[in-house]
Amino acid sequence: MDNYEKRGYLNSDFKLFHLLDTKKQDFEYHYHDFDKIIIFIQGDVTYRIEGCAYKLEPYDILLVNHNDIHKPDIDPSVPYERIIVYLSPGFLQAYQSDSYDLSTCFKKSKELHSHVLRLHSMEKSSLYRTLTDLEYDCTHDGYARDLYCQVLFLEFMIQINRASLTNLVTYLPPATGDHRIIAIMDFINSHLIDDMTVDTIAESCFISRYHLMHLFKDETGYTLFDYITEKRLLLARDLRKTGISVTEACFRSGFKNYSTFSRAYKKHFHASPSETIKDNPPI
User: Fold this and answer.
1) Which distant-in-sequence residues (6+ apart) come within 8 Å of 213 by Cβ?
2) How far is CA 255 from CA 2, 68, 136, 260, in A?
3) Which residue range or ranges hold the HTH araC/xylS-type domain (predicted)?
4) Which H or E run includes 265?
């Protein structure tokens, strides 16, 4: 099985980076424990997320959920500039009520199978202004800096969600070579705990077994069962972090054999399932 690397770190509610690459960088498929927001500024980049490809334009906003497998394809002859926000999934859970939910834009992204928000010019100015203020205050000392940065970040998230709910941004359709890949991934992710064979997946997506295997590899960069195993392991780890027992996490993530699960888990995460501890609840 390919080992898709976990990249980045996060030891706070959110962390902001402004990055400019002028030299060639090769990114492999990887994932994060946290959600990620990318504001693309300049470059020649096609971003690949969960089998979907997006040709980016300046000020596109990418929403990458934790555990989404992704990578950018970058033309190194053009500077690649972007602002990245690493975001704890638990942080937004603290900002939900009957009248609002700051994770709505991420949920809508999943429903529409679109990870990219393309801004209209009027919305771009207000969002970018708030983002500029946020970046400045996150990198400069000042009275109650951490608190003010959190206020600015919440304002930014409120603006994104308002724009999303009022259709002032466009959720960009993916430019995949074959849109059957979305149906295949939908089936896999909704049947992770079930027995899956190549034949059952092929039949559900109305595609031959042969074309299914080759299509998935060509469009996503990884084999069908590498992807299924990866997603089951990530689900098991998330279950363990909620306090569920190791045995229950094994079977609730689709593994049928505990020893197979334990070996795969330790090989992938470099720790046994029992060493994964429950996350602290968000404050």
Assistant:
1) 198, 223, 224
2) 18, 20, 47, 8
3) 182-279
4) helix 258-269
List the domains of the chain with CATH numbers.
5-171 (2.60.120.280), 180-275 (1.10.10.60)
- CB of 110 closer than 8 Å to CB of 65: yes
- Return the closest-CA partner of residue 246 out of 282, 275, 217, 270: 275
Q: Name the 3-class secondary structure at 40.
A: strand
Q: What was the pLDDT predicted at 280?
A: 45
List, as one string, the DSSP characters of 54-116.
EE--TT-EEEE-TT--EEEEE-TTS-EEEEEEEE-HHHHHTSB-SS-BTTHHHHHHHHHT--E
- Predicted local distance difference test score (pLDDT) of residue 138: 87
Name, in order, each residue with C-beta under 8 angstroms of 170's C-beta and a sequence gap of 6 or more.
117, 118, 120
Separation between Cα atoms, residue 181 and residue 184, nearest integer Å: 5
Contact 90/282 with Cβ under 8 angstroms?
yes
Structure tokens at 64: 């990458």
pLDDT of residue 123: 63
For the cut 90, the answer to whether the pLDDT of residue 79 exceeds it is yes
Q: Show the beta-strand stretches assigned E in 175-281.
A: none
Distance (Å, whole) CA 88 – CA 40:
20
Residue identified by tokens 């077994």 is 209
Residues whose CB falls within 8 Å of the CB of residue 107, separated by 6 or more in sequence, listed in order? 101
Q: Which of 226, 221, 248, 218 has its CA nearest to residue 236?
A: 248
